[in-house]
Amino acid sequence: MDPLILFTLLGAAVVLLLTVGAPMRPIRLLGNLSVKLVVGILLLFLVNASGSWTGLHIPINPVTASVTGILGVPGLVLLVAVKQFLL
């Protein structure tokens, strides 16, 4: 096989993979963020459900859900600390 044809096919394959894979990255990022947001809402719901025993209530809004979703359990602990000591 001629090296020029081989390099042309390899170059075309790389360009094809880059053009097909490039639009998937933002979609994957949005998917990951939405899953983390749902997990944050569930964690806040569990804290609020146990609030009758502990007397703790953290409102579920986009800011608290985002903090809990992105940071996870440390974000939830941060929100609880802010609620207890600052508010």
Describe what is shown at a glance.
The chain is mainly α and about 90 residues long. It is built from five helices and no strands. It has a domain at about 25-85.
**Backbone CA Rg:** 23 Å
Report the order of strands and helices.
HHHHH
Largest sheet: none
Give a count of the beta strands, DSSP E runs of length 2 or more.
0
Calculate the mean pLDDT score and round it.
Answer: 86
**Number of helices, where a helix is a run of at least 4 consecutive DSSP H or I residues:** 5
Ranges where pLDDT stays below 50 over 5 or more residues in a row are none
Rough shape? Answer: rod-shaped
Query: Structural class of the secondary elements?
Result: mainly alpha
Distance between the termini: 74 Å
Percentage of residues in strands: under 5%
Instruction: Indicate the percent of residues in helices.
Output: over 70%
Transmembrane segments: 37-56, 63-82
InterPro entries: BofA
Organism: Alkalicoccobacillus porphyridii
Pfam families: BofA
Overview of the molecule:
Helix content is 83%, strand content 0%. By secondary structure, it is mainly α. It has a domain at 26-85. Helix 2 crosses helix 4 and helix 4 crosses helix 5 (73-85). The longest helix has 26 residues, at 24-49. The mean pLDDT is 86. Keywords: Membrane, Transmembrane, Transmembrane helix. The chain crosses the membrane at residues 37-56, 63-82.
